[in-house]
Amino acid sequence: MRLSAVILAAGYSSRMGDCKPLMELGGMTLLARCALLFRLARVGETFVVSGHRHGEIAAEAGRLGLPC
C-alpha cells in the first residue's frame, strides 16, 4: 500500500501570533519538520495546502520539494 500525506498550512494562526508553518523549531520550520517526519515514515507523496500567506508558504514548500 502506498500512502500520501497532506499538510494543512492554510490557517491564520491567530492564537499563536505568527504563521505556524513558518515558525522555527530546532533550526527548521515546522513545515520542514513535518515534511522530514513524513519522509522518515516512508510516505510516498506529501502535499501542502496553503491559504493565508500563500506566497511565503508556497516558497518554503518549493524549497522542500513539496507541491503546494
Word description of this protein:
By secondary structure, this protein is an alpha+beta fold. Helix content is about 30%, strand content about 25%. It has 2 helices and 4 strands, in the order E-E-E-H-E-H. A two-stranded parallel ribbon has the order 1-4. A two-stranded antiparallel ribbon has the order 2-3. It is globular.
Q: Give, in order, the helices and strands.
A: EEEHEH
Structural class: alpha+beta
* Low-pLDDT segments: none
Number of strands: 4
Major pleated sheet: 2 strands, parallel
Please sum up the structure shown.
This protein has 68 residues and is of the alpha+beta class.
Topology:
Elements: E1 4-9, E2 24-25, E3 28-29, H1 30-40, E4 45-50, H2 54-63
Parallel strand pairs: 1-4
Antiparallel strand pairs: 2-3
Core attributes:
68 residues; 31% helix; two-stranded parallel sheet; alpha+beta; two-stranded antiparallel sheet; 2 helices; 4 strands
